[in-house]
Amino acid sequence: MASSLKCDLCGKSATVHLTQIVNGKMHKVDLCEACAQAKGVTDPGGFSLADLLLKASLNPEETIQGSECPTCGFKPSDFKKLGRFGCPQCYRTFEGMVTPMLDNMHKGTRHVGKVPHQAIERRSLLERVTELEGALADAIKTERYEDAARVRDELVQARLAISKPVGPSTGTRATPARS
Amino acid sequence: MKIAALLASPSELTDTASSKCAVVLMTRIRLARNLAGHSFPGWCKEAQREAVLERCREALGAAAPMKRSVNVPVSELTELQKQILVERHLISRELSGSKHGGGLVINRDQTCSVMINEEDHLRIQVLRAGFQLKKAWSQIDSLDTELEGRLDYAFDPALGYLTACPTNLGTGMRASAMMHLPALVISSQMEKVVRAVNQLGMVVRGLFGEGSDASGSIFQISNQTTLGESEEAILKRLGSVLQSIIEHELNAREKLLEADAPKLFDKIGRAYGILQNCHQLSSSEAMNLLSLLRLGIDLGLFPEPTRALTDRLFIEAQPGHVQAAARHELDSGQRDALRADNIRTEFASIARPDFSLHQKP
Lengths: 179, 361
Fold this sequence. Notes:
Chain A is mainly alpha-helical. Chain A is built from eight helices and two strands, in the order ββαααααααα.
């Protein structure tokens, strides 16, 4: 039977079933009588499924409400006040909060467009150098001199690559997420 | 280069006879960029903001397209200089009000300006007179690529360029055109146009962005979304929306001429009369009159060279520019008088409108 569906908000048996298309994506919501009333679903003018979905999917945020960005100390409650994040890392920290927002905000949820190849390459080289420096120190400490010599050569190469300017990246683009 | 010298020298907006296109006054593209590992300016400690300012000023100073540009902390600018820069669309009101760590780099011809520590670490902007989306994009793309070689941009493969506000994620690009739409305003079609444009994912604002009014029938149309679409795709979509608005505006002009040409000519003729004879003129009245005059030029009532004058006065009629021309403090009444004097003088030599072109045989 169709009525075996549960209310998305409280889990009681659902009697109101809604389908709405937002930005070309279909969203379905099932609600019980009481929740439908409470969310104003019965008032077609004032109701947006998108809002409801957004709020429903934001609920998990309650669980990270107390957490803060390890890099900059930003809290989810700060976002409510400012409408802006604290640092680039916040997008990782609060991923659960960001993802549902993007659906309504943008045309897609994945970046298609220019990519800063030079900056990315430089950063990965720097990470490689740090990694090799650690390995070198480790090899010397444990008296693995053959390894140390090999790592040292790699380190010289990596440092050399950093000092060289990276080639121009004009015209290069990320692969589109979908064709 | 010093800021005072820059402000006194010719700029893209005030000295380019822009217009092969009658309707689009100027095109702008801005990119929002941030440095990895630093908090966004709004959440940053003062010392960190200063450090970001230094790094960005240095990188911009070394970038070839910004050679011999003005490169200053905002704190070194006077209130009046900041106001003039806002009126020329080179900086935002937010940056002009910023207390610590704000910076500004503007190239010599004032086509390119970079705001440091506004909402994002970098707001790069290219501004070109007329309808120039492609040219503006290629200019800003190459500067951005050059900066990327010197600065570690905050970037995520899925979310693109990371920005303080999630509405700018992805490309971080906002492209806009300043459009002169007097016929759509006169024939009360703007509301309809705004609605249609919104449905196509574009935003319509007044002359100075969010919340500003549309005096002079000038509107800014820009893309709303930045994630999920490439720069080229966004620009192509915006370009076709702009093209269709141009067509609507030109149609509306035809219709106004067909339906009641005398009424339209009366408006334009009166505007000319006031501009030539006024002694008190507020900036918003000046904008509205200049707007009618520009419409008259488009309709062939005034000779084409009048256009460059009108476009220059759109900027020079703004309060900061009037104040700067005076060289001493003015209250708003004195400004209105001086604005009227300047415009009267400029228009003294402009020939009367020639309506014969449109007279029915």
